[in-house]
What we know:
alpha+beta
Amino acid sequence: YYLPTAVIESYTLHDGQDPFASCQEGLVFGLRWLPIDEVEQEWNFWRAFEQAGGRGAGDEFASGMSSFPPGWVRSRYSHPGWLPLLTDRAGNYIGVDLDPPPPPPASPGQVIAFGREIDEKVVLFPGDSSGGWGRFLAAFVDDLSRGE
């Protein structure tokens, strides 16, 4: 997998939300922006969960999984190509999909909602190669500018 340029650039400028800041609420739509070391910890947790035979370990749970739009995200409970960047602290995330299923229009870098309670993975912003995360953050800034 490769990290989209927009993810690298955003983390170069700002390493997520400080867990010790006075504001404990999530910064982005009520979700906490994970510092890069916590991105790695969350990603490793899900890989260990799969290796221990958890729900993501095989395709036995694929029948209960789906995506919107249909076919844009792999029908899995978890996947190593899903990189968590924002969290609700209950096992649900917004992040980037580094390994969407072929064929297009799904593309690496698309921003998706996924996690413990999300059986239907949702594409929030298409990948357009590396632009999904950058466009997601730009939309968030636009909402703030409008007072939303």
